[in-house]
Amino acid sequence: xxxxxxxxxxxxxxxxxxxxxxxxxxxxxxxxxxxxxxxxxxxxxxxxxxxxxxxxxxxxxxxxxxxxxxxxxxxxxxxxxxxxxxxxxxxxxxxxxxxxxxxxxxxxxxxxxxxxxxxxxxxxxxxxxxxxxxxxxxxxxxxxxxxxxxxxxxxxxxxxxxxxxxxxxxxxxxxxxxxxxxxxxxxxxxxxxxxxxxxxxxxxxxxxxxxxxxxxxxxxxxxxxxxxxxxxxxxxxxxxxxxxxxxxxxxxxxxxxxxxxxxxxxxxxxxxxxxxxxxxxxxxxxxxxxxxxxxxxxxxxxxxxxxxxxxxxxxxxxxxxxxxxxxxxxxxxxxxxxxxxxxxxxxxxxxxxxxxxxxxxxxxxxxxxxxxxxxxxxxxxxxxxxxxxxxxxxxxxxxxxxxxxxxxxxxxxxxxxx
Amino acid sequence: xxxxxxxxxxxxxxxxxxxxxxxxxxxxxxxxxxxxxxxxxxxxxxxxxxxxxxxxxxxxxxxxxxxxxxxxxxxxxxxxxxxxxxxxxxxxxxxxxxxxxxx
Amino acid sequence: xxxxxxxxxxxxxxxxxxxxxxxxxxxxxxxxxxxxxxxxxxxxxxxxxxxxxxxxxxxxxxxxxxxxxxxxxxxxxxxxxxxxxxxxxxxxxxxxxxxxxxxxxxxxxxxxxxxxxx
Amino acid sequence: xxxxxxxxxxxxxxxxxxxxxxxxxxxxxxxxxxxxxxxxxxxxxxxxxxxxxxxxxxxxxxxxxxxxxxxxxxxxxxxxxxxxxxxxxxxxxxxxxxxxxxxxxxxxxxxxxxxxxxxxxxxxxxxxxxxxxxxxxxxxxxxxxxxxxxxxxxxxxxxxxxxxxxxxxx
Lengths: 418, 103, 118, 170
Prior knowledge:
The complex is a heterotetramer.
Chain A: H1 3-8, H2 10-24, H3 29-66, H4 82-91, H5 103-118, H6 138-159, H7 163-178, H8 180-194, H9 199-204, H10 211-214, H11 216-230, H12 241-244, H13 254-279, E1 288-289, E2 292-295, E3 298-301, H14 304-332, H15 338-366, H16 372-417
Antiparallel strand pairs in A: 1-2, 2-3
Helix pairs in contact in A: 2-3, 3-13, 3-14, 4-13, 5-6, 5-13, 6-7, 7-15, 8-11, 8-15, 11-13, 11-15, 13-14, 15-16
Chain B: H1 5-25, H2 29-54, H3 60-90
Chain D: H1 3-24, H2 28-48, H3 52-76, H4 93-112, H5 129-138, H6 144-169
Helix pairs in contact in D: 1-2, 2-3
């Protein structure tokens, strides 16, 4: 119990200190653990919520720039206070429950949507020492949380007693649920490479090489399927404004709508973070070890707290970049049709991800005895090869399709030229 | 570690009996399948409880629980496909009215 | 009971409380003046016709069904992926066989034209 | 009372009450949602039993796939969703009685077994149930045959379900 300990690992130090304090107050140690956990969880959740408010501002500012506007800029510096004004507006807005709605289910749905996102933060390693819990099935845990989110949307769509909402819920299942398959399959790739399902373990094992270099295709498939899982454009068929108005949340107003909106943003950011964790080394900073920077034999020593903070900053930056890419896709792509979306998943992403998984498993086994650089080059080349073959197959079918359509298209174009 | 094995078994038995009641008393075919799900879950509780209490190093209980998941999924897939097929033809999912095979 | 699940359970409880608090607060401060027109089903200003429970395409259901089978099978690959390092190459081939059976199902569905949105 | 026991009782209450609503609720969508609650309770039980993998798989497979398929099927056969008539058979008390009798018999049988009140020993150090499960499922001395057969079962289910769906279309 000294300053040294605090600098080495502040989180552990504070939790030990709190635990000691509570036990000193004659509380049973089990209860003390629970209270320490609760304090930690509250800190994490409140941080996530405040960050969520910040994300509202980021999202509005970024979409404005994409559309050549300024975005919120009136309240506070750069419009930073704008989200708080939004919240006040949402809170004092009348909450309307439509006729014929299934009231209980209708009210549970937005809460469940928010819960399904918040619980993801329980396993999110923000840094090597700052994380909720190092669950040994964390990779599947995030799929399970996604299942709750799907359920929330179906409940919202069903209970609103509205045709558009119901259609949104149906589309949601076709969308979110289909893309879960390539997502789960690409989640298997870091699991195989790291030989663990804990997110902290996956991050730690990327100390030597980030998995994006071993499996760039896996990263791409995961990114695409997580965008679909988030229900963001180009896969936002469940709330397609021009077709079904707002989809599953059409009848929601006030703070209930607010939770759908807030959880969507936090979900997008969290999945940006997962892309960072699974493929871009999470909190790993190049050359940064537990005791400071190592450039070959040249060492810059840092106290533990410095390393932890640097790691946390690295994670947040990576997650933010992932989130930015998701926004970039959202605001530059038009919405795809539902048949295209399903065909893209079932006829392209799913077979490709399964082939990639088989190749990864075989190569990991075959190359496990070799030095790292051979392993890395082999994995990378296999990915390139699979990608190239895929493109060739696509090209072949595209040519064939075009040949089939040409005789029909020719007369019209010839006629037009005359 | 402070829960006797018998508690789990009684819970599973009660869940099984509720599922059985649902299967036998409901008219709607989908509701009957819901009851079957409850019964399968009761089996899984038993399998996992025995795995944990008898010998955690032997994975028989968990392995068979995994297989029960597969069986449940297969049962739901085929069962619901049949129900919906019947619904399309006969416009009913009341189990008693689906009597084509009855003599 | 392991501590990690205790933590997740507590996280779940807090995760449920946190969204409810603003909702309760909003219910206290927001106005509440219902009237039949305000509460009617929103359909872009047009009067609602008929029942809300519209019959939808069975195709949605087919995709959910294919998804169910695939979901179960891919989830089963996780234990295999985790024990890959400790097992002989034979086990890898078993996993590939498993994936192959999965792909067979996909190919069958595809050939039967059930993956088309018609 | 030990905290584990309190958690067990809460969980058991959740499971049994939700299960009861699954079988008696008149609205089928509500029945399916109560099923979700019951399944979630079972997932908590698995976590209580240190079966981490099964706990998450329970949520992923049962809630994420099976319950959603049920909700879908109920929505598809919508004519019966708001069926105001009784959802039970007229002679529902016979199954109820039978269920109670079977429960009584099972409880009697359970307590007739020796050593039934044992508590679980700690999982031996060095045993990781997750990896052990993976090993057991694919090693030839373990459960590789049931594992592969289950995948064939799922293939058969997929083929059968798709086939049923096709004949319906024509």
